[in-house]
């Protein structure tokens, strides 16, 4: 059911893809369906170029026949479609469950339009249940973690296959439990001021719209403040 909803949201988002677009490809299980659909569009004759937010999405895109370009080689990104881990009614989100938060944030920042796709379980009234992922340099990560702990949070080094998880940038992830009473926006700002913090998974409302699927179907919610009219 959850997978069907993820797929439904992704297929709806694919309707916003146009010929000649430079597409930002998100990361994760919901983005998977989008990448697969974009591959079908290429096979049907649509001319697309993609930049990927992770090596895994790049590999998928290549498998599905989408031409992938280095982000430093593109003049612009027209539309990025990506998943989220949690999103509140103001379109503020937590991302990075898949570890791609820094590339996802850079790609979203430079995109003319951003669509976030999800099943309805990702919608929350207040961010905080999903731990905040923070990408940190391996150098000095332990002292940094202790510093964060001294503020009353519980940073956990992400482990994969018994070893510290490495992002595509070669860094570690600290997943920060115990949400800030002041909220993730403030916590993220503080963390980003610490040496060694590369980026946090708190995303301000950079999306143009979100597409949410539940058992009743698919809803498109527009973020009026972000939308640039006439772009799509
Ligand atoms: O931020 C992400 C990866 O870094 C993903 O977009 C997020 O984790 C959602 O993943 P999924 O679609 O598998 O639930």
Describe this structure in words.
By secondary structure, this protein is of the alpha/beta class. It has two domains: 2-125 and 204-217, Rossmann fold; 132-201, Alpha-Beta Plaits. Helix content is 28%, strand content 28%. The chain is built from six helices and 15 strands. The strands form four sheets. The protein has a six-stranded mixed β-sheet. The chain has a four-stranded antiparallel β-sheet with strand order 8-11-7-12, with helices on one face. A three-stranded antiparallel β-sheet has the order 4-5-13. Strand 1, helix 2 (29-43) and strand 2 (49-52) form a beta-alpha-beta unit. Helix 1 crosses helix 2. The longest helix is centred in the N-terminal third of the chain and has 15 residues, at 29-43. The radius of gyration is 17 Å and the shape is globular. The mean pLDDT is 95. Catalyzes the reversible conversion of ribose-5-phosphate to ribulose 5-phosphate. One of its GO terms (molecular function) is ribose-5-phosphate isomerase activity. The active site is at residue 104.
Using brief descriptors, characterize the structure shown:
232 residues, six-stranded mixed beta sheet, Alpha-Beta Plaits, 6 helices, Rossmann fold, alpha/beta, 2 domains, binds ribulose-5-phosphate, NagB/RpiA_transferase-like, 28% strand, 28% helix, globular, four-stranded antiparallel beta sheet, 15 strands, Ribose5P_isomerase_type_A
Strands, helices and their partners?
Blueprint: H1 2-14, E1 22-25, H2 29-43, E2 49-52, H3 55-63, E3 77-83, E4 86-87, E5 93-94, H4 101-109, E6 111-119, E7 132-136, H5 141-150, E8 154-157, E9 159-160, E10 163-164, E11 172-177, H6 184-192, E12 197-200, E13 202-203, E14 209-214, E15 217-222
Parallel strand pairs: 1-2, 1-3, 3-6, 6-14
Antiparallel strand pairs: 4-5, 5-13, 7-11, 7-12, 8-11, 9-10, 14-15
The structure holds ribulose-5-phosphate.
């Amino acid at each position: 059911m959850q997978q069907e909803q993820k797929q439904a949201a992704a297929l709806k988002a694919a309707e916003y893809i146009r010929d000649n677009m430079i597409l930002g490809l998100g990361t994760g299980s919901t983005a998977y369906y989008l990448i697969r659909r974009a591959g079908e569009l290429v096979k049907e004759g649509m001319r697309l170029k993609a930049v990927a937010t992770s090596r895994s999405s790049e590999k998928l895109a290549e498998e599905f026949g989408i031409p992938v370009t280095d982000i430093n080689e593109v003049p612009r990104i027209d539309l990025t479609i990506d998943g989220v881990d949690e999103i509140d009614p103001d379109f503020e989100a937590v991302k990075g469950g898949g570890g791609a938060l820094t590339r996802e944030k850079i790609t979203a920042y430079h995109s003319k339009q951003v669509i976030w796709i999800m099943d309805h379980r990702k919608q929350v009234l207040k961010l905080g249940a999903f731990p905040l992922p923070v990408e940190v340099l391996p150098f000095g990560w332990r002292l940094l973690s202790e510093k964060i702990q001294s503020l009353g949070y519980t940073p956990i080094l992400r482990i994969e296959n018994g070893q510290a998880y490495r992002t595509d940038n070669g860094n570690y992830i600290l997943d920060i439990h115990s949400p800030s009473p002041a909220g993730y926006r403030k916590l993220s700002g503080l963390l980003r001021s610490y040496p060694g913090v590369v980026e946090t998974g708190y995303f301000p409302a950079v999306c143009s719209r979100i597409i949410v699927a539940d058992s009743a179907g698919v809803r498109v919610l527009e973020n009026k403040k972000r939308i640039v009219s006439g772009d799509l």
